[in-house]
Design goal:
The structure is a homodimer. Helix content of chain A is 66%, strand content 0%. In chain A, helix 5 runs antiparallel to helix 6 and helix 7 packs antiparallel against helix 8. The radius of gyration of chain A is 19 Å and the shape is elongated. The N terminus of chain A is likely disordered. Chains A and B meet through helix 5, helix 7 and helix 8 of A and helix 5, helix 7 and helix 8 of B. Chain B binds a DNA duplex through helix 1, helix 2 and helix 3.
Chain lengths: 214, 214
Amino acid sequence: MTQPPSEPLESLEPLGPLEPPKPSEPARGRRTRADARRNRERIVEAARKAFAESGPEASLNEIARRAGVGPGTLYRHFPTRPALLTAVFQDRIDTLCGRAEELLTADSPDEALAEWLRAFLAHARVNQGMGGSLLIEELEKPDALGFDCHQRIQDTAHGLLARAQHSGTARPDLTAIDLVQLVVGIALSTAHATADPSQPDRLLTLVLDAVRRR
Amino acid sequence: MTQPPSEPLESLEPLGPLEPPKPSEPARGRRTRADARRNRERIVEAARKAFAESGPEASLNEIARRAGVGPGTLYRHFPTRPALLTAVFQDRIDTLCGRAEELLTADSPDEALAEWLRAFLAHARVNQGMGGSLLIEELEKPDALGFDCHQRIQDTAHGLLARAQHSGTARPDLTAIDLVQLVVGIALSTAHATADPSQPDRLLTLVLDAVRRR
DNA sequence: AGCTATCCGGAGAGATTCTCCATATCGTGA
DNA sequence: TCACGATATGGAGAATCTCTCCGGATAGCT
């Protein structure tokens, strides 16, 4: 997905939703070292697999080992677990918010909101609900990395909701926070429910019923 | 439920909704030793405080230390973390389900269901959402201890919901599982949200709107 | 009191998180 | 092309946690 940009020397392509090597430090003086970038990619890739296999509690040590780096290197790049989770989920979130922009011009604001919430629920449920856990964890500790990711989703939800409210199909007293929390809640409480795979959608449909004003 | 033989030698006060010493072994031969019962109480009490302070991830070692017992003793009584959590929450759940029995004879089945769900949400939210986490964890590993606790809540919800459905104020296509999962979801996703204390109730009100059929 | 099933407690193995810093490596200017 | 110094590395290790094992203590029964 996100990887081999295969830069010959330095052709950092100005691609859209891909993360720059170090958005924080604005390249004063020297450039980011190539090995640092390479290791970062390796870590993210190993983390993606490890999280998929073992859930969001996967051992960071083990991830470092599988990435072929030392624990210190992992912690240098990602000081906290949410930071690493965010990096892993970055492109998924990009896709999600990109989908929202298309939906903002859809015919039915109501259906657009519903469809995006379904996509968001799917996102929050992947990998044993780690998407949802991530969003929750970010809320408590507003780190630079996590907050940004959560804010994007909130803003996206706000756009779609406002449009649906303006067209009169959604209750005007709803906020984007309401929607996000309800859907994240469904994701969390059904994260491990293997009994009925359609249950999450069932619950979301119920919530959507409440969203539509009568 | 399964017994308090009301031991005479014990000055352990015979309070109501407290858990029996060992429901599993049906007292063949010898009686449960007094020190075992005493230690069990101490552990539960220490756990209650520790979980309240540090959330459901509190160190079991630390709990044992504060209870004045060794780690081995703690694990003898409570093999898993959910087992200990269940013990801590036992009387709270008793209260919750007891309240439901009163509500089953209330005038308005609709209001009875709503009120109980509010109480259930409060229960699931206490101590940084550990009530909710507990219910979720039980779902994945049906241990004897946890399953029982979850089943009781499910049954209680079912009773109130069935009555509301019969009276025509609740959608007939809802199940008790739906309700429990929605409320647990709200509890989880708002567990750490300190911004707006009324948010959980707000979300529950929304859900209740969806429950009532129009 | 004595016997024995039961229980205690803490040592310790193994796993994990996170830090620190001597060393290796990369990017750059000459 | 080379040397220099800013950057990054990685792994030892401290601290913490979970969970097990078993010699020894103890409570209940007779």
